[in-house]
């Protein structure tokens, strides 16, 4: 058996190129302009009407082109045109249809019109849905069962075609968002904002049981009052009232164009049975196209030969010129021909393949953190010597996300707006040492939150003006957590001296709703229990699975819980709406999981959400944050920091936490990569010969013993 | 024998219904149709209407097991259990909850599972039997004692340790094989070396111990003493007589697992990035995809029953004294 295994290894020697044996890719690709990365979870949806996850956007954003995108380098995040000719400015109208000035009161605005002009000459990627025969008819739009013999994937179709992108493709996609059978996650939001959206959704609901082609025909013929094609390259979206955040939605794949031909092509009988569906094979105009979708193994993006072209940004932040990130300014993008994403479910092989040079970039799992990163005397994260020797670069960025601990404001003990409950929440806020939490459980990858708005989002304040005075005080130029004595005093004022309820004479006991699935969770839950114990509070951990946890939050039966939010767009409204009363989870099925409701906060939110960024909006935001800090419905938790590592041959891997379409900016030096891979992965052969020798040492005496025993005589 | 096989097939039907029912109950104790809808629709901005629509579209808007409102037989048939289960008996797995054809996915993903499982089984079998015979040859010597100690130590070590250790030593330190990954067709071979080596080594402890026990039991029998008395060499006795007579228990262990080789290994496939049926099942559980879970459990049960029937048939092949009635 061992010889058999050695034989296999020897076979590996002959079959591996580049002089390396552990190369996981074909040797012919060694110097190709291919970017290598991994994914751990299969994307569920690649239909832009349905997709709403970061792991899906990692692919979709390279393929589809909504009208707008985020500037790659400028901060705070700025919208710039993508397929659009310019960023649309809304025009406001009153109920009689008369135009209104930009600075009019939001209450006077009946509707906002967004006229979007797209660039002419943009073409879709090559796709069989566009292929035509000699007569000019669509080649694959009337396929019978016999035509699909031998067809198992999209690439099995011989012919492909393309056509120019038009405004109708955007309008068609917006209609798709209203289609009940597509279950678009933003259908509910758009129903509130796009004029006529709800009516269209209701009308289409009659087609729930119709066949797919009939649905598509109905969708093509349907009219959506608030979305109108103006000419071949422009269309108008009418939004109810004033909704400045609508522009951000125009940078998300939901508003990417979808050609009706693709929908018709995929809806033909026999396609779904062959898994040839839009959710699996996207059709876009972006710089890359999905040429292989086998998410059980790998997904491959290739340069779209029909891409209309784009140039690397020429503007950046002042420090960008020094960092070299503008070295490619003005050059045509994308730089990369192909991107291969391999399925890698486990951290250990993913990390080791990165170290071997087989992935160009990597995140850092907790297991590998100490190997990659150390904290210097100033508290800054720096690379370890091993990483520096390999020329690896560390990039960090605070994410537009928040992980908070919420109190259920409907609970009679920890919730409500009584002073007693408020003081209790504030005391717990002090006792819960989030600096320690970040250090222990996030490897220092987080920034303690002083309020709900993360850095980089308008409304966030730095320094002394930005601290939560109920939990921190400003000392020696930095925020210092208030003492436990202060927390205990608050407990006493709340009627819980030493954690004993003065009214009942019993120890205060609070239930903590936790999603605990692994052994790592135990340490975290014990730590949280100890934080509450500092105040004499007995914390009862109620561990459950995520389904039950969500159910408890929906029903409002929990007391304290930990949850998070990842921003849809970089606007304070997208964080503060998590505390907006009419968005309460129990009563309104919204995203306000704490069910917090404060009339003044809600009133200010209603005003703030319509406003443009500026001093007036900042003042309102300051007041809202102050109210929230006073009421303390959350322990503000922390804003996570993303750490990523990149090899020296990968350039322009600048972190942009809002943009997902950053593959097009990345540039590779494949020659350098091939050299270093070879240097880092020289096969060490002596163990094979040593193993062979060892086997000989064992087998020869064994054979000798066998022969000796057989030849020996009985006693 | 035909009557026997037919009878066993008929026995299988209530077993499969029971397996299906238990899977159904266990799954829906943990996941309600609402939970499934939320999982598929995403966590953000999901409305009650969207959940209801998803359930209706996927047939999860019926009662689970008994429909009080339906007339007649519909009380049983117009339920999630009946609607989702009955087609399985015709091996129509249908579509997963995200719309993909399960039968097609199974047909694609069983090959990578087999690509690992078959070599591991064959090489492991050859090595373990050879090693066990070697130990038996030197029974009650230091070779035997030392081997038993080694085997007990090997079977005490977690399979995960072999995987991580194998990846560390062979790929990370010595750079001999890819640490993980897979490729289509013949290009897959270099990715199979490490999982096969790890699989074989990981099975040596338990496998060899088991065969050693079988052979020791055989070697104490009268026919072996007779063979020796005839002057046959020990090697001849072991390979021609003991091995042949020990085939029934060996077959019991081997034939029964043959059909299950299709099902793959959850941990191995996950760590080595092999797109087999093991990882397919575990993904389905994580994604609360009941359609796939029930299909895989059903398929596993069918294959297990098939394995048992094949085992019985194989008895008659290796031992003419056995008759199936």
TrEMBL record, chain A:
UniProt-recorded Gene Ontology molecular function terms: peptide transmembrane transporter activity
A Pfam family hit: SBP_bac_5
Annotated transmembrane regions: 684-706
Any single GO BP term: peptide transport
CDD domains assigned: PBP2_NikA_DppA_OppA_like_18
Subcellular location: Cell envelope
GO cellular component, one term: ATP-binding cassette (ABC) transporter complex
Domain Solute-binding protein family per the UniProt entry, residue ranges: 164-584
Coiled coil: none
Record keywords, A-Z: Membrane, Signal, Transmembrane, Transmembrane helix, Transport
SUPFAM superfamilies in alphabetical order: Periplasmic binding protein-like II
Family: Belongs to the bacterial solute-binding protein 5 family.
Name of the protein in its database record: ABC transporter substrate-binding protein
Lineage of producing organism: Bacteria, Pseudomonadati, Pseudomonadota, Gammaproteobacteria, Chromatiales
UniProtKB/TrEMBL annotation, chain B:
InterPro entries: BPD_transp_1_N, MetI-like, MetI-like_sf
Domain ABC transmembrane type-1: 110-314
Membrane-related topology note: Multi-pass membrane protein
Keywords, sorted A to Z: Cell membrane, Membrane, Transmembrane, Transmembrane helix, Transport
Keyword Iron assigned: no
Pfam families according to UniProt: BPD_transp_1 (PF00528), BPD_transp_1_N (PF19300)
Membrane-spanning residues: 9-30, 114-138, 145-169, 189-211, 246-267, 296-318
Gene Ontology cellular-component annotations: plasma membrane
Subcellular localization, as worded in the UniProt entry: Cell membrane
GO biological process: transmembrane transport
Protein family: Belongs to the binding-protein-dependent transport system permease family.
The name this protein goes by in its record: ABC transporter permease
Organism: Thiorhodococcus minor
Lineage of source species: Bacteria, Pseudomonadati, Pseudomonadota, Gammaproteobacteria, Chromatiales
